[in-house]
TrEMBL record:
Protein name: Bifunctional protein FolD
Functional note: Catalyzes the oxidation of 5,10-methylenetetrahydrofolate to 5,10-methenyltetrahydrofolate and then the hydrolysis of 5,10-methenyltetrahydrofolate to 10-formyltetrahydrofolate.
Catalytic activity: (6R)-5,10-methylene-5,6,7,8-tetrahydrofolate + NADP(+) = (6R)-5,10-methenyltetrahydrofolate + NADPH; (6R)-5,10-methenyltetrahydrofolate + H2O = (6R)-10-formyltetrahydrofolate + H(+)
Gene that encodes it: folD
Cited InterPro entries: Aminoacid_DH-like_N_sf, NAD(P)-bd_dom_sf, THF_DH/CycHdrlase, THF_DH/CycHdrlase_cat_dom, THF_DH/CycHdrlase_CS, THF_DH/CycHdrlase_NAD-bd_dom
Keyword NADP: yes
Ranges of residues in domain Tetrahydrofolate dehydrogenase/cyclohydrolase catalytic: 6-120
Molecular-function GO terms, alphabetical: methenyltetrahydrofolate cyclohydrolase activity; methylenetetrahydrofolate dehydrogenase (NADP+) activity
Keyword set, alphabetical order: Amino-acid biosynthesis, Histidine biosynthesis, Hydrolase, Methionine biosynthesis, Multifunctional enzyme, NADP, One-carbon metabolism, Oxidoreductase, Purine biosynthesis
Length: 283
């Protein structure tokens, strides 16, 4: 059996069409949704990510402001910029691209963003809201994964979901979202003994590790749904996920490709959060 593809690009296009309509409705009542993106330093990967985010904003009609700062920007100066954006009525969402240069305390910076403008969903107020099942902004990558699962029509109630990775931006919020959808959730990490023992029992596997093709076909139950969050370069410099795609697709029921899977949905959920923020701020 060859797995069916979950096409993140196609699903993103659908979502972005709907978001364009919501932006038009906001504009019709005089509201222009605005996202501020702050980039500190010249990390090449971060430069690509912020460019893609700004481009996507443009596509759906969100006004975006890209602020680039030199790597030696002081923490006080950065916090002052965030505070200014917090009170800027033209800005509904604020995103500080991570990682930050070492001398800057990412936690302090994120905590300075007003929670109602924290469209990345990293502020403890939003993380806490997810934890207790209250409304708030959900982190974009796991949110995008949930939308992909919804799209294929899987009922997660009673399913066993195994999340590999426990970072604050992907693994942990992913596990909480799956739990909220009534899955039985196992979280694996670098200290997990016998990872394959867990993944082989999974109806749904979300791999968010950052190790090229680490999830191999023998670790997957036939028919399982496999969501690949990883973005890696293999030894030959080729872009790949955490899943050994060619082999796993012969075993799984559904699988996301890399590229063209979770990546585009992550940016789409950022756009959705920004439109939500503008709607909430002006309701
Ligand atoms: P982190 O490095 O923060 O977390 C990786 C997690 O994987 C950790 O919890 C770590 O465990 C766990 N891990 C490491 N090695 C193993 C192992 N051998 N077995 C089991 N678990 C292991 O990464 P992120 O969560 O930020 O990102 C994960 C991947 O997703 C990366 O490839 C990243 O590039 C990609 N990514 C993709 C996005 C997208 O839009 N598609 C967005 C964000 C990230 P421990 O906690 O014990 O160290």
């Amino acid at each position: 059996m060859t797995a069916q593809l979950i096409d993140g690009l196609a699903l993103s296009r659908l979502w972005r069409t709907r978001l364009t309509e919501r932006v038009a409705a906001l504009r019709a009542r005089g509201v222009q949704p605005g996202l501020a993106v702050i980039l500190v330093g010249d990390d090449p990967a971060s430069q690509v990510y912020v460019r893609n985010k700004v481009k996507a904003c443009h596509e759906v009609g969100i006004h975006s402001v890209l602020e680039t700062h030199p790597a030696d920007l002081s923490e006080d100066a950065l916090l002052a910029r965030v505070r200014a954006l917090n009170t800027d009525p033209a800005i509904h969402g604020i995103l500080v691209q991570l990682p930050l240069p070492r001398h800057l305390d990412a936690h302090r910076v994120i905590e300075t963003i007003a929670p109602e403008k924290d469209v990345d969903g990293f502020h403890v107020a939003n993380a806490g809201a997810l934890m207790v099942g209250q409304p708030g902004f959900w982190p974009c990558t796991p949110h995008g994964c949930m939308k992909m699962l919804e799209h294929i029509g899987v009922d997660l109630r009673g399913k066993h979901a195994v999340v590999i990775g426990r970072s604050n931006i992907v693994g942990k919020p992913m596990a909480l979202m799956l739990l909220q959808a009534n899955a039985t959730v196992t979280i694996c990490h670098s200290a997990t003994a016998d990872l394959a023992h867990h993944t082989r029992q999974a109806d749904v596997i979300v791999a968010a590790v950052g190790r090229p093709r680490m999830l191999t076909a023998d670790m997957v139950k036939p028919g399982a749904i496999v969501i690949d969050v990883g973005i890696n370069r293999d030894a030959n410099g080729k872009l790949c996920g955490d899943v050994d795609f060619d082999a796993v697709r012969e075993v799984a029921g559904w699988i996301t490709p890399v590229p063209g899977g979770v990546g585009p949905m992550t940016i789409t959920m950022l756009l959705a959060n920004t439109v939500d923020a503008a709607e909430r701020a002006t309701a």
